[in-house]
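Entry 14. Structure prediction run on the chain below.
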Amino acid sequence: MTQADVLRALDARAAGQWGLVTTAQAKLDGVQGVQLLRLERSGELESVGHGVYRLAASPQPEHLRIKVAWLRLDPGTPARDRRTDGSGAGVVSHTSACAVHGLGGRSADFVELTVSSRRTTRDETVVLHRATMDAGDITVVDGLPVTTVPRTVVDLLQARADAARTGTFVAEAAARGFVRVDDLAPRVAGFAGAYGLPADASGAELLEFLCEQAGRPLRARKAGRPAAKAAGPGAASTPERKRPTIWEVAKRAGVSHQTVSRFLKNDSGMKPATRASIERAVAELDYRPNLMARSMRTQRSHRITIVLPELSGFVPIPLLRGASSAAHAAGYVTDVVGLEGGESRRARSVLSLLEARQADGVLSLVPLGALAGGRGAGQWPVVVLGEYDDKLQSRGRLADGRPAEEILRHLADQGHRRFLHVAGSQDWASARNRRAVYVEAVERLGLESYGVVDGDWSVRSGYEAARDLPADSGVTAVLAANDYVALGVLRGFQDRGTRVPEEMSVFGWDDEEFTRYFSPSISTVHINKEEVGRQSMLSLLALLRGEPEPKSEVTDLFHLVPRGSSGPVNR
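Output returned:
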């Protein structure tokens, strides 16, 4: 195929898709990658994205980044043949839909698309949402499938987009006749609470609030809220119950409103009797803080985001519980999100959350690249825990192996002298540390080790270690790398007729809930992750308030929990 033939084939492909052609489409016409590279070097093609080229002779298309990202969702299918359902489907949505509709101000730094099935992308400038759409929610603008204006508003609200920016979009759409407020209002009423309005606020009130935040009040009259629902035909209406105020709570409790404010901020220095009086008053009056008013005064969302990696088979529930309880006590709602990509990509996502005021602060369990300075990063309210790596593998304090020596000492006091250790995966710092402490402590305490079995944290590895242990090994106690390994060890010994703990003691690690209910219950090491999470959140809260970092430390991070699977030597 000559260069002229190649250009004709590419031109035919690009004719219906803004002068753009993908590598996959070119291959369908027999054009090889090396030929595309030659045309790029000669100036006939311009690379505008991974696997996407623009014919230099064609005009620069509007919204180029959006069109490139959409083509890449299904690079082998021509734009004219693309559907809005199926595995290769994709619809321009959210802030990108705002840009294509020409509403809502400047375009975002990233492209947002909605797909119907789970997909991932390596492009750090593209955000994929997953949702199903009716045909009525999609329109075509300049050859692109785009969410309609009403659906775009719903998507923005569901994603808790910035109120002012969403309000600008709504106000411009209403002014230009793209949407009727009366038609849109019923679709958005359910999001009022997420923006600080009373739960029973109408959709029209929410839209008016958003537009006011943007400095673009709707020309339409605000929809009034009915005073009360009538009980039936002819029933007299009664005035709507007035929301109790902080001053009424103070009067009922016999304290000042400043004292009530301190109570709502969870002031730890308050007298128990005063706290009890305020708690009774709050309950009797059914008082709830007006988060809408507070948000408007402070320009805060009263939400804190806790960041995890996107894909992980392990979630540290106790740590999240401790962090969330501390946030809730301070009047914050917590959102746990998984962010894909490496440290730098997660950092950009975190900054986007903060800039859009979708969160007041961020507690990250995983590294955030340039934001990994521990407590905050310049002006940003960010705390990086530092106890986990990218894969949520523990490091630092949580990977301390010294409790292994405590286990050995405890069992030695019960007469045990010869031990076996079933280790965890050596890719983990915690497994390496437990193994190293075990080996060193056995020698230091004058004990004996039959050996170390290389495991992988699984029940199976523990079962096989117990099954394969020779009957004449002399081992009377096994240290398992975690509770799942310990469970396998127990089952392995049970299947071979070895009684636990009469003939063999077994010790696990992590104090998983099931260890209390297995028979026998499993001896283990408890890790106070809940307190680690609580103190990390307190550090973030202090940062948000401009207060010094709390000088606290988890002094009882580890402690042994002997149970039914361990006991004195009986042989």
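The two ends are 85 Å apart (CA to CA).
Filed with the rest of this week's runs.
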